[in-house]
Amino acid sequence: MKGKSLLTLELSGNAYERGYKYGAECQHLIARMIEEEFYKKFDGKLTKDQMLRHAKKYAPFIEDYSPEIAEELRGMADGSGRLYEEIVMVNALEEREGFEARRCTVFAATGKATKDGQTYHGQNWDGLASEWWDGEMGLLFNVKRKEGPDILDYTNPGILVSAGLNSKGIGLSWASVPRLEMKLGVPTYIIVAEVLKQRTIGEALNAILRADRAGCFHFIITDETEIYSIEATPRDVDIAYSDDCVAHANHFISEKFYAKQNMAQMKSDTFVRYNRMNKLLKEKFGAIDLEACMSFLRDHVNYPWSICRHPSEDPNEKLKGLTLDSWVIVPAKREFWIAHGPPCEDEFKKYTF
Fold it and tell me: What gap in Å lies between CA 88 and CA 66, rounded to an integer?
């Protein structure tokens, strides 16, 4: 995986124009996402028509929540030559059946926990080794908006925004959690996109609270000095504030949701990664800097189901996991450091506005 470059692209203009350029420039990747991650995976379970009719039900929720995002999706559909419902379907990826492969680990630190008092936050974006796509799954867009903050947008083909940093210093990383409930509503990836359009940490939190949410998720949202850890379901939200550091993996940790999880369906590595990241943060408390954050993400305790994820050699393991991309965000400096592939193998590269 060494030597593979992250595909980068600048998007500008109005919402439709930005979406259109995204669709046109990434047409073959979007087509592959639709065909492989939806039609192929659901072949024999649902017809294409059934999938599109279901996806169409999300559209009114998106349009009510953010007309700007709806316009971007329409532009992406036209630019890529795909149906609007297909683009909506891709952006409801988190609400798709099953999330076992998305075993991401996230963290943030600020104030007395860091060497310079600045905020740092990071994530290993994990998926399946089969989703590496020879390095073409990960994308980074420098989004120049006519109104509102610009966005350094990390994402995967066809998804508007997966995580990132905006020019006001608002950063977002996140992880999948058990689906305690699901309903028709605003898909998680659409909420991610709306959060990163906000100017303040309060507006970012409100983007979650005002959403008629479709699913469950955990977000870490930061700015230059603040850290918020948010767990959410369609009907409820738990917002935790930290003045030093926080970590999360793929299980709920708040008292509000923890006991509602079905432990028999959990994967043990989520607890190992969560506890391991907290230990690393504690060990470097007061001295956390950019290099320390990068080292956290390279950790191999409980390999291959570690923070830095690698495919299992067990022939009975059908889902071969992999850290597809790894990053550290420094909001005060507006820096987005990304390693394209497992961070133990690939160097972090700095991206800025």
Answer: 13
